[in-house]
Design brief:
alpha+beta; PAP/fibrillin_dom; 4 helices; disordered N terminus; PAP; Plastid-lipid associated protein PAP / fibrillin family protein; 9 strands
Length: about 210
């Protein structure tokens, strides 16, 4: 009969080259600056030639790629608080799926002008949001809203008034709705948001501050 011998001094732990502690395993999934930088770079590269989303409207595969990149950033930003003071800024649109904004951008030429910067101007302390489309050199359409942050990432808003302004006239328009958006990723450069209608928005901190 064979004899099985045990070495009382031997460790039951697997060889160190193959063993990974729970902490090491969890750290693989934990967001890091390098992972965020890579995911952010991937997203910005994907949207760089999309004309703020106009080209994406006719390219479902590109849209899917971009949304996948957004999902990656959302995962890295999961649990972070994005409703604080860092949300206050003049944000300039880089890309969106919002049809109304894209319609105005695309068809501004029908009115003898062209769309300039499209902005979200947020002031958390004053609980205020302005959605702005500029028409250089002096035209602007903006919608005023009140906001109510709901940490960690949601902001509820309610439109209060809208204005179409040119160099020599101002046309007030009635308010038209309410909703919410979630800033699923926010850093010193960009913000990525999803809203109540399932639309996506990628914005950057503008190099200037917009005021009425």
């Amino acid at each position: 009969m064979a004899t099985i011998r045990y070495n009382a001094g031997a460790s039951l732990r697997p060889p160190s080259s193959r063993f990974r502690s729970p902490t090491c395993i969890l750290s693989f999934f934990r967001p890091t600056k390098s992972k965020s930088a890579r995911a952010k770079s991937d997203l910005l590269s994907l949207i760089s030639d999309q004309d703020r989303g106009l080209k994406t409207q006719s390219d479902p595969s590109k849209r899917a790629e971009i949304i996948s990149a957004i999902d990656a950033l959302e995962f890295l930003g999961e649990g972070s608080v994005t409703t604080g003071k860092s949300l206050s800024a003049t944000w300039r649109m880089l890309w969106t799926t919002e049809k109304e904004q894209l319609f105005i951008i695309k068809n501004a030429g029908l009115f003898g002008t062209k769309a300039g910067d499209v902005l979200q101007v947020i002031d958390v302390e004053e609980m205020r949001l302005n959605n702005v489309i500029t028409f250089p050199p002096t035209g602007v359409f903006f919608v005023r809203s009140t906001i109510e942050p709901e940490p960690p990432q949601r902001v509820n808003f309610k439109f209060t008034s809208a204005v179409l302004r040119s160099s020599d006239r101002e046309i007030p328009l009635p308010p038209f709705g309410q909703g919410w958006f979630e800033s699923v990723y926010l850093d010193d450069d960009i913000r990525v948001a999803k809203d109540i209608r399932g639309d996506y928005l990628v914005v950057e901190r503008a190099p200037y501050s917009w005021t009425e």
